[in-house]
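Researcher: Please translate sequence to structure tokens.
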Amino acid sequence: MKEKLRWLIAVTMFCAIFLTGCGETKMPEVIDGQTIYIGKEGEVTLWLVMDFQGADYKLSELTSMAVEEAAQYNVGKTQENIVAVEKVEALAGGDKAAITYKFGDWKSCSGFIGNDFFFGTNELFYGTVQEALSEGYGSKVIMKNVKDNTLFTEEQLRQAGESRLIVTDMGAKIYCPGKVAYISDGARLNEDGSVDTFGVEGLAYILLK
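Model: Translation complete:
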């Protein structure tokens, strides 16, 4: 009985390690900069980070502003397309604050961060390559393999129709719902499996395995 129990524990630990290495990255425990988390069902969490030191408003006022902006955006939206403000908090050091937004999918996220509150320039896409192409993404894109930096061209991307792809013009640390295979030039794969897109000019592409 003890031997069987040890075997079960060993198998469970192996599966946990295997799934962690091959599945989605875990939601970050500590936020130190702008961050995006995409879950396995396509749900999106955005931590919008801004300078807070010397600001003319208090944390409570920032919270009220964020909630009011979300409420204005949600007018006329279905339950699936609304944005929720989960919390507003000062980050370690006290010179930055983070607003945590929750979205049901990438479309609601892109719709919100692309509205007038965010100067109408930000966007986020998550879906299959085929869906991305139908949305107009992928033109003249060149990515690189995260292991050996070999190039991955637009033609190769078009042949990866069912693979999952993330596209954004936001500088952020992005936690993906799967292991990363290819990234745009200027992006960087972190040790925890997330992708840093702060160094990308224009749209950042992240192709998952």
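Researcher: Any highlights?
Model: Helices lie at 2-22, 59-74, 106-113, 129-134, 154-158.
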